[in-house]
């Protein structure tokens, strides 16, 4: 039982309740005793004044026990008395059998108790004329009876109160731990392939927020699982196409349907395409699974953009596309290889879709830089602008559908931002913003 949160809370509640009851009873008992003792002293003082008035109005024999009334909680009791001479001999008493006995009573104002016939007595005293002393007293048993009666009633009230608190506590423990139990059962049955098993919805409490967090996490896991399935399906489809071409032309060469030279050229082209696709897939999966450290290198970004221009120039010339470069002098410590690949992918895509012009622009921003590539091609519709960064998303002139996915993964790893929007050239604009983290 102690291994569960419910058991621990329940056990803690019992310990706290028992400790609280015992502490309350102890302190309450002390309080009642103290109050009764104070009340008894006041009552004895009042009866002492009454006894002296009776004696001064007559003599010692006029005083009797019935004259000394004590009232506690609407119940009537009687105090007793005796009068001592200078030799501590009792010359008058409420109990006539005590007369003639000797008894020593301290006259110190700090003493309030003495023992008589084996019983503890509370007393008060007063000096009389001719060296006499009067002592008014009452048995402590009376106070104990009253204290016990009050304590029993109070204890019953305390037990009832704590019983109610205990029941409320049990309800609270059950109410608190039940969602955790439901969450445990749901998580134990959860599998990303089973869409029907969901995490129960939580309330506004911390446990409810935890359940909502698990629910969101399960949704992300299901989404990731679905993405992996789609990724595997897309990889299989994309790899199957060049493999079928290679197999088809190999069979055609074998059957002498096509010439060996033509068949080999197609097989070579498809093989190169297959290798490029596998390399990009390996690069993408490595970025997603291996958290390798990207080395920062002090780089002249203006020179990097010029290098991109030089590498893309032959392909652009073949399509009759002019590539314009607009840069600013800027040096910065960056992961050079990854940034260079982003700029190359942007520019290659722009050249594929451009009609006449591509514009590569590098600008400085606060703490970093922005790379922006525009083209005058057909552009990207608004509902497709986020999809272009998905794996295997290819447009009409696309090749593998992995290049922009690598750019998006790079941006995520670097904490950079990436996007696609309309260009003032009439086509698409892809941009990448990178800011260095401040120490």
Summary?
With 439 residues, this protein is an alpha+beta fold.
What's the CATH architecture of the largest domain?
A: 2-Layer Sandwich
Helical coverage, percent range? 40-55%
| Rg (C-alpha, Å) | 50 Å
Please, how many domains?
3
Strand content: 15-25%
Enumerate how many helices there are, as a single number.
7
* Helix/strand structural class: alpha+beta
Any idea what the shape is?
A: rod-shaped
**Major beta sheet, strand line-up:** 4-3-7-6-5
Low-confidence segments, ≥5 residues, pLDDT <50? Answer: none
What is the helix/strand order?
A: HEEEEEEEHHHEHEEHEEHEE
The first-to-last residue Cα distance is 50 Å
- Find the CATH topology of the largest domain: Beta-Lactamase
Number of strands: 14
Q: Just give the CATH class of the largest domain.
A: Alpha Beta
Main beta-sheet strand count, sense and barrel state: 5 strands, antiparallel
Q: On the 0-100 scale, what is the average pLDDT?
A: 78
Enzyme class: transferase
Transmembrane segments: 12-32, 150-174
EC number: 2.7.13.3
Subcellular location: Membrane
Structural description of this entry:
This protein is α+β, with helices and mostly antiparallel strands and 439 residues long. It has three domains: 5-149, Beta-Lactamase; 206-289, Signal transduction histidine kinase, dimerisation/phosphotransfer (DHp) domain (Helix Hairpins, Orthogonal Bundle); 297-435, Histidine kinase-like ATPase, C-terminal domain (Heat Shock Protein 90). 53% of the residues lie in helices and 18% in strands. The chain contains seven helices and 14 strands. The protein has helices at 5-57, 140-189, 206-254, 260-289, 301-319, 336-353, 403-414; strands spanning 69-72, 75-78, 80-84, 90-93, 113-116, 119-127, 133-139, 297-300, 322-326, 331-334, 357-365, 368-375, 417-422, 428-435. It has a five-stranded antiparallel beta sheet with strand order 4-3-7-6-5. The protein has a five-stranded mixed beta sheet with strand order 9-11-12-14-13, with helices on one face. Strand 1 (69-72) and strand 2 form a beta hairpin. Helix 1 runs antiparallel to helix 2 (140-189) and helix 3 runs antiparallel to helix 4. The protein is rod-shaped and about 150 Å long. The model has no long low-confidence stretch (mean pLDDT 78). GO terms for molecular function: ATP binding; phosphorelay sensor kinase activity. It comes from Paenibacillus albilobatus. Keywords: ATP-binding, Kinase, Membrane, Nucleotide-binding, Phosphoprotein, Transferase, Transmembrane, Transmembrane helix, Two-component regulatory system. InterPro entries: HATPase_C_sf, HATPase_dom, His_kinase_dom, HisK_dim/P_dom, HisK_dim/P_sf, Sig_transdc_His_kin-like_C, TCS_sensor_his_kinase. Pfam families: HATPase_c (PF02518), HisKA (PF00512).
